[in-house]
Amino acid sequence: MRASAWAYIGTLVLMNIAVADSVVTTPTDSAAIKETLLNYVEGWYEGSAARMQRALSPELAKRIVRKNPKTGKEYLEKTTARDLVTVTGTDGGCTADSTESRPNCTLTPKDRQQKDITIFDIYEDEASAKVVFLEWVDYVHLARINGRWVIVNVLWQEKPGPNTK
Q1: Nearest to 13 by CA among 23, 21, 24
Q2: Is the overall model pTM greater than 0.85, yes or no?
Q3: Which parts of the chain sit beneath pLDDT 70?
Q4: In which element (H, E) is residue 149 found?
Q5: What distance lies between CA 152 and its chain's CA centroid?
Q6: Top-level class of domain 26-158
Q7: pLDDT in tens, 43-61
Q8: Which residues have a Cβ under 8 Å from the Cβ of 85 and sit 6 or more positions away?
Q9: Where are the domains of the chain?
Q10: Second label for 40, Cα 20 to 30 Å away, from 24, 51, 62, 81?
């Protein structure tokens, strides 16, 4: 093959790669994802099971790495959407060092309610983000299902500090 033919094929390949990697993300997608993540974080602080439920896929898989105190072996502790919605209604907004449930728990003061949201990437109907609460950090995967952005996966870790169990 002549050099010009190879150059033409190379150009087509590069153009194809560039087109395949450039998916248009609209400001509407970013706003809808942020709204979902705000329902998640603010729903927790408010103890609003309804807001939390709006943010989650029913098939949510939320996980944290824990260590068995007896064996020292690490494992994944899992939380379902149903469990998270329930605990949000009973303990949402309570600090980790609080010993009681709502309404008698120690609530996170509004001025300490950290709600840092970073959207890392959006590709068609999937997205990844980070949500930082006062007492933990969540890495989140979202999916657009039936036109609505919902959280499908969360991997989280407690922050070290006085309010962490």
Answers
A1: 21
A2: no
A3: 1-24, 162-165
A4: strand 148-158
A5: 8
A6: alpha beta
A7: 999 999 999 999 999 999 9
A8: 49, 52, 53, 56
A9: 26-158
A10: 24
